[in-house]
Every structure is written in structure tokens, then in C-alpha cells.
Amino acid sequence: MLFRQFCDVTTNAFSYLFGCERKGEAILLDPVVSNVSLYLGLLDELGLKLAWVLETHLHAEHITAADTLRERVGAKVAVGRKAGIDAADRLLDHGEEIVVGDLALQVLDTPGHTPGCISFRWQERVFTGDSLLIGGCGRIDEPGGNGAQLFDSVTRQLLSLPDETIVYPGHRQGGRWVSCVGEERQNNPLFHGTSRDSFVALISEMHEPLSALMSAVRAANRRCGRMTAADLPNAGHSAGARALPCGPLPSH
């Protein structure tokens, strides 16, 4: 098995590559369009064909590379059924698996940051998108965000996993790239010793309006990142040109 973690330097967004050497195929999770050359270069170096692009949710801080990679290498795109992404090849439900050779990624339904957030479990690792971050979690001020739902998702689906499960989040926070369930259960200030009502009250105070740029990014990402002439007229090809305040909820 092959595994790589990437970090987009302008948005601190993580992407993940999973490769099955036996079959010579790969899965790419949450790719950023400005990093397509990096992904393709590594796939070529490792001798892998990209079979699937997966999305944890409808992103607002960067344009996904899903459609670009589908056009370039023929990969299929899979997203959560409730993600609001219209152009995917497969819609995923809780408990389903994406299987490539010896790789099997299990879908966990983790809504709250957005209505369609999902996470993926692979062996002793869990990839949490923006639902659970290191010492924090995703905001709920995007359309459809729900604090009570997010608390339930994190506590029931993610923090209920074994302590040693490695947590790979959707964004870098505080310079860290990885955590584990036991550490987040004990040290994440938004969940340790916090009631559901207290969490909802706290996270509901963290509100910023959705900017025009973020709205345009979301519109493109509903089409798996396919751009139209109306998208981002002043922002260039990728929202990676600037960091946008929609991902991590700061720790307190």
C-alpha cells in the first residue's frame, strides 16, 4: 500500500493519496485544482493510475481538482449523497466502501459543518474532512451548517473510534498534520467535557458572512470544480490565491 499526505500552502487544505501497488491504481481525497501537476507527477512516479477522486464535502475555500482529473486521466468522482454536488459519478451513503484492489475506504456520515459532510475510515486511520480538526472542528456558518448535528457526528462517529485511530483532518491547524482519536477525545477543547448545548452555543457565535468569492467557489464545486465564464472573474483559476475564513474553528 502507498499513502501520501499533501498540504495546499495557501489554504492549509489537506489532500490524500492512497495507492494499491498490486493493481496499480489509486484514490485521491479532496484534491485542490492548483496542485494538479503535483498529483499527476507523483502518480506517474509511483506508476499508478487514478481510479477515484473522493470529496469529504462541498468546499468553499478552494476549487476542487475533481473534474480536471476526471478529464485528464479518466478518474471517477464520488461524493456524499447529500453534498449538493451535481456532477459526481457516484453518490455515497454511510457504511458503503470505495474499493480499489486491496484498498477499501469506508464511508462515515458526519454532517454538521455542511449537510453533506462525510469522513472515510481506512484501516486504523480516519479522514475527517472539516468535521473534526486537530484541536477544533469546522464552522457552521456555511449554508446548511448545524451545530447539534456536528456535535453528534463527531462524538458518535469519530470520537467513538478506538483511541489509537489516527486522525487525518481536512486542514492543518497549529502547524500539525496528524492527531489520534484518543488525543482529540481528551484534549480537543470543543468536545472534552463539553455538553451538546454548550457546544452549540459556542460554535453558533463563530459566524462570518459567506463572501462573493466563497460563493463562486461553492458554485464551481457543485460541478466538481468545472469552471464557467461567470466563475471567479477576478480570482483567476483557483481560490488558492488567498486563504478564506471558512474552514477551521479556532481553539479556545
Descriptive report:
- By secondary structure, the protein is α/β, with parallel strands linked by helices.
- It has a single domain (2-224), classed as Ribonuclease Z/Hydroxyacylglutathione hydrolase-like (Metallo-beta-lactamase, Chain A, 4-Layer Sandwich).
- Helix content is 23%, strand content 25%.
- It is built from six helices and 14 strands.
- Strands 1-2-3-4-5-6 form a six-stranded mixed β-sheet, covered by helices on one side. A six-stranded mixed β-sheet has the order 7-8-9-10-12-13. Strands 11-14 form a two-stranded antiparallel ribbon.
- It is globular, with a radius of gyration of 17 Å.
- It starts with a strand and ends with a strand.
- Mean pLDDT is 89; it is low at 234-252.
- Could you list the spans in which at least 5 consecutive residues all have pLDDT below 50? 234-252
Compressed to H and E, one letter per element, the order equals: EEEHEHEEEEEEEHEEHHHE
Under CATH, the topology is which?
Metallo-beta-lactamase, Chain A
| Amino-to-carboxy terminus distance | 38 Å
Order of strands across the main sheet = 1-2-3-4-5-6
Mean pLDDT reading: 89
- Helical coverage, percent range: 10-25%
The fourth-level CATH homologous superfamily is Ribonuclease Z/Hydroxyacylglutathione hydrolase-like
Number of domains: 1
Shape: globular
Structural class: alpha/beta
Q: From the alpha-carbon coordinates, what is the Rg to the nearest angstrom? A: 17 Å
Layout of secondary structure:
Layout lengths: L1 E6 L6 E7 L4 E5 L6 H11 L2 E6 L11 H8 L2 E5 L9 E3 L4 E4 L2 E7 L8 E5 L2 E5 L7 E2 L8 H12 L7 E4 L9 E2 H7 L8 H9 L7 H10 L26 E2 L3
Parallel strand pairs: 3-4, 4-5, 5-6, 10-12
Antiparallel strand pairs: 1-2, 2-3, 7-8, 8-9, 9-10, 11-14, 12-13
